Design the sequence.
């Protein structure tokens, strides 16, 4: 896929074309899903695994410059990969402890809404059905021992449920279950940072989710973060 330089230090690769229409203008509210990674592939933040889209006012300095430029180039429904140099990200100070100084950041982003405008998209029933299909696919890969494929599919399921307009309690329960499954698969594959993120997102939905606490404690121990591991065991 073609990589377009939006300006020096900010480039975009379109992963899925949007539905057209006016682009976001300075000061407009946008709603997005995103996953942010370092160049080594380590995920430092993700609204997808949280199952909660991110909202901000664009072009007014609420987010890093790379986001302002990137998002204002996207159509509703578009999915893209933004690569942002350190000077257009968090600069020389970084964002400790996850983002080092002058780090190049890679975001996979999906523009869900601009103001009140959103793509026609799928109904809540269709989103639920698609999420359950992802869950079943993930379970098959998990049983085959492909932990990465399983984790990726469970994350997609959580993302689908996160787009529901009126999620019921059963959908929130399913989001917690799949987030915990992401953590289990990630711990098994050695991606403990991803496991911590998935568990934290599950606990934002249900602060008493026992599997999430247990899997996050395991991930902290694997990362030799003994204090956090002990806190999750209380």
Sequence:
């Amino acid at each position: 896929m073609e990589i377009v330089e939006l300006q020096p230090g900010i480039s975009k690769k379109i992963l899925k074309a949007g539905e057209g229409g006016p682009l976001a203008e300075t000061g407009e509210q946008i709603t997005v899903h995103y996953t942010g990674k370092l160049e080594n592939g380590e995920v430092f933040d993700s609204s997808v695994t949280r199952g909660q889209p991110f909202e901000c006012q664009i072009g007014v300095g609420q987010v890093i410059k790379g986001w302002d430029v990137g998002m204002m180039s996207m159509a509703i429904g578009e999915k893209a990969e933004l690569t942002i140099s350190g000077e257009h990200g968090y600069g020389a100070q970084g964002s400790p402890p996850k983002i080092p100084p002058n780090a190049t950041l890679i975001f996979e982003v999906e523009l869900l809404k601009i103001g009140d405008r959103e793509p026609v998209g799928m109904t809540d029933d269709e989103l639920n059905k698609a999420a359950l299909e992802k869950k079943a696919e993930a379970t098959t890969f998990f049983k085959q021992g492909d932990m990465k494929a399983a984790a990726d599919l469970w994350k997609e399921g959580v993302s689908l449920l996160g787009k529901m307009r009126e999620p019921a309690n059963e959908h929130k329960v399913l989001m917690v279950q799949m987030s915990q499954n992401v953590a289990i698969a990630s711990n098994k594959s050695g991606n403990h940072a991803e496991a911590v993120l998935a568990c934290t997102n599950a606990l934002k939905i249900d602060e008493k989710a026992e599997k999430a606490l247990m899997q996050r404690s395991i991930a902290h121990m694997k990362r030799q973060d003994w204090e956090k591991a002990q806190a999750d065991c209380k």
